[in-house]
Every structure is written in structure tokens, then in C-alpha cells.
């Protein structure tokens, strides 16, 4: 028996990433024969931070539990024992156990279990042998030995003359004569110019101690008390005055708070310490982009600085060669109302540095006359109330936190129901919505009355009115999705969201009007770029697929350059070769056409308040484990569902038809051709968000209405059911896609 090391327990995403890389070659010399074969690929996961280590250990616990060698709870308890050792405070002169020490202890534990455990089979009393062995390892001296704190390394160099062969032996340090005078003076000591280093202050632990060239950094300069012996960027007797966080020319405590902030300026230099969006605020278009950013709900505070050191009191400045229009706003009194307006003290003052004692930027009222007082920050709880609330919480990195709350609610509500009861409720919902779909078809209500003509053609087989009522039935926050689909999705500007994904704002750097205004100039460059062919086979397949999309009504006729509208945005189309699994299990290669909307600057006009969070392999496994614990152990079956031509089911808005003209090379004529896209193109940011909102709504309808236990990853669904419910659940998911007009691959 051998215990798998941490980096061997890879996630399902790891092998998928490695499939794109071709395996290397290795030569084998056997007597007089030389053979060449593909080298064996060894999957390893990256363990660069604590979160990745925690996830790898959780995957190992899950693997051991699924194989039946030990329980998940016992293995997690062993992992917690290992990781808790890194948080133990070490005594003076020693450092806390490192990750390398914990890894050595885990390896020693594997050796001890291999020596002491003779069988992995469950004993007669139902106990697994490894469960007992793992609990005993926490007191095993050969394992705990590796987790002991180690002494810190010292930088003192040994005396060159100490104990040299033939030389005089040096006395121990404690026996050496002291430099102190008979009067108790301190002797020479260490005066100015000495470079002795003191103990690292607690506020600076874990930061840089030296510059890249090896020069030391002054501690005091990075603390709130500061250093008066030199200016920023200069050197004092204790080191250079540089930031120990980013090595800039400012104290470390001033770097606090910049992680969640962004800057906006026309020139961007390498010295900036926070992300900067390059926008020229001297132009009206740049000002319009700025106001769009400021209207976002996540903006808390704004610090405005006048360009070129101007002050509001300076008044109007004459426009000269020294102050051109591109470098500054000259009508400075216009900004006075914004700059001189006092703000709340928590925003107006600088961020408080890390310190053991809080300085006094706060108003303390009557107690201000005392030298000391106590202040409580946070919510006051009684001990019993705090324990009760804390008992229901879990660790933020817990494996089961990957289960979506909607799936948790469904699993909890169905825990006490029998399979026949769940099937009965599912059948009632199926009859209800079949009847509703029939009624809407007879009354010719499909929710597409105000749709553009091309959208009605694309959505001909879909009843958006039925889809809207289904979304409203389970109280989804994305209530406007059906109307957005009916009107089509835009490709430029602000991307609409449905309050279904985590808030992670991204901002545009260009306006749609700017990109459309440059389209006439950028079109010849993109047209010439489309003539370059790297792989003739891929280029021919891309052109064939493009003609196939045109024949299906997703694209319009080929255009010559002179036939395109003036503001038509041309986008280069290229092919990406991907592997695909057929229904019989065999793998084949296919080419996916992709439109480069980043090159055409369309994606630069997008700003979005949310970030897509797909349900990956870890979420699938966590959902299955949560179901097993809630409903009891059952033999499960799984099925993957892929939406056929997923993006081609949704139309573009009428305003976006001029923003999507893919340009593709015709291998027969040797000349590029342009087409007009009517459906969501693959490669546009706005198209991805629009489709993911739709696939999420389909997934949530299946969970909340039909009781389907499944996950969604873009256009792929993974459905899980017990053997007793397999056929009934499969019939429900087929009915869902059928009445809403979606086809499966």
C-alpha cells in the first residue's frame, strides 16, 4: 500500500488541459535496436498556494472514500491535523512548521501505515483498518517528529581563524572578554554606519527584505513612524527607502487598500501600483466612458486629482504649447465642486496602517479627555448565541460548498420522499406544462410579437411566452431574459446581466461610437490579415462550415469590400482544431470557427457587472456527494447532454447586425469573403454572457420544476439519477427541451 502524494490527486480539469499538448518522444536503446515511442504523460497538479493544497487534500479524501479504503471524515481529520500544525505559534528563535515539513510527515505516515496495516478490507465489526491507523498516527513519534518547529537560520558568518589547523583556538562567545569598561559603560557598541538588523516587526512579516539587487530595505520607512534620515527612494544608514510590498518608492502602509481600486489616466507608466484603465479624459468619448464606470453600483469612493498639479484656485489656464488640450483640463473651476467637497472621514483620510495601537482619526465624544479607553468593533454576541451561530457555519474552502444553493434546496426537500413520490410530483409538472404549451400554441402566443424579422426566423421553433412563465414560476432573478432573447443580444456596450453570477465588474476602454468610427480605417487591415493561411486544411474546413451556416440562414450572402456599409465592423474568422467524442465513444477531430472580436475592438467596448461561474468537475462531484448524504446511498447513473449548435439558437439585436461581419478566406478563389451574422457569434464577450444566461435558466427550470439533479457547463449538462428513476428523469429532461424548442446533439 502507498499513500498518494498531494500533487498526484489531479482535478478533472488537469487532464483536459494537457490533452492539447502533444506527448514528447523518448528513445530506447535495446541491444542493437533503437526505438522511438511517445513518452508517458504523468499528470500532476500545481500546489503553489494554500487553497490548491486544501483542494488537493480534499480530492484525496474523496478518492479514498469512493474506493472504500477509509472514510472521508477520518481522512479529512488527518488532513486538518497536518494543516493545523502550520498555524501553531513557534517559540522564540524557531519558526513554525512549513509545508515541506508537513509533506514529509505525510510521507512518513504512508510508510507507517504500509508497515502496520496488512489488509484494507472492512473488519467484522464494520471498522475500516485505515480509519484506526490514521487516528493513531497523530501520536506516532516517527510522524510527529517531522512537524516540530525548526530553529531559524542565522546570517552570521564563522570566523575565518576559528579552529584553523595550527592556529589558536578561539574561546566560546560567552567566555570572550567584554568590551565594557570597568565603570559599566557600553564600550564602542554599534554607532551610526553599522548595518546590524533588528528583529522583523510584526507588521512587515512576509514582505520583501531586500531589493532585487540585494540592497537592504529600511524597516522604519515602511512603518507608520517613518524614517527621517533620507527621502523616499534614497538610502539611510539602515537601508533603502523602498516599499517592502511592491519595491516602489513609497512606504508599505500606503500600499494598503489598492487591491480593489483602479486608476484612470491617459498615460500609463510602469511605476503605477494599481490597475489603470488607459482613457484620455480630454476627449468627450473618454469622459463618456468614465461616467459609465462611475454609475456602477460597486463604486464606493472616488479620488480626483487635477492634471499637471493644478489647483482649483488657479482659475482658467491659457492653452499654450506647454499645456496642450491632450494633457489637461484647463477649465479647472468646473471641477471645484467635485474636488473641494468634503467626504466622510472613513474615505477622506488615508487607510489606517497595520499597527498594534489604533491612532485617533475617529470622534470619541465625551471620552476624548481620557488617555485610554476601550472600543468594540463588530456585532456583540453573547457566548451561547455566538456558539449557536458558529455551529451552523462551514469552512470557506469546504468541498461541499461547491454545491449550488438551488441544488442543495432540492436535495434537502427531497430527502424524506420516496422515489415514487418524486416521480409522481415530476409527472404532475410534466402534465401541467404540456397543457400550458398546448394552450399557448392554440392562442398563437409565442412572445415574439415585437421581435425583428430575422429574430422571428431564428426563434421560429421556440415559445418564449412559455419560457417566460417557467422562469417566473421558480422566482428567478433574471425575469427579463425572455424579452432579451426576443429582441436579440447586442455585441457592444454594457452587457446586461441577470443577478445570477458573482459580482466581479469589468470595464470598457472604448465607446461603441469610437469603434464604429474607426471601422472604415480598420477594415483594409483585417481584410489583408484574412488572406494569411497557416493550415490550408483548417482554412478549407472553416470556409465549408461558413457556407453551411449561410445555407441554414445564420449568415447572409458574401460581401465584397466595396459592398459593406461604412460603419460595418469586419472580424477575422479562423479555425481551432478540437477533439470530440462521438456517441459510440470514439474520438474524432473537428474544426470550430472562431471570430476574433478582440482584434476588431468589439470586446473592448464591453463592461459587465458579473463574471460567469460555470459548474466544473469539482461542482459535479460535490453535488453527487451531497445527494448521497441527503438521500442515502443508491446506485447512480449519469448522462451528458449537449445542446446542438447552441449559440446559433439565439439571435442578434437589430442594432448589432452591423457589428458582426466575419471575414473568411475562400480557398478556391484565394480571396477573402465577408458575411453578415444573424445569430450569436463564437468569440464575442457579450455573446457568451447572453448564452450563459439562457443555459442557466434552462438548468434552473429543470431543477426547480422537474426535480432534475444536474449541472451546467456552458452548453453541456450533466444529469444524475438513480437506477429506479433513470427512465422517468430522462423523459422529463427530453420534454423540457422539446416544449421549449431546443435540440440535443
UniProtKB/TrEMBL annotation:
Residues 148-201 are annotated as: Disordered. Residues 157-177 have a biased composition (Basic and acidic residues). It comes from the Eukaryota. This is Uncharacterized protein.
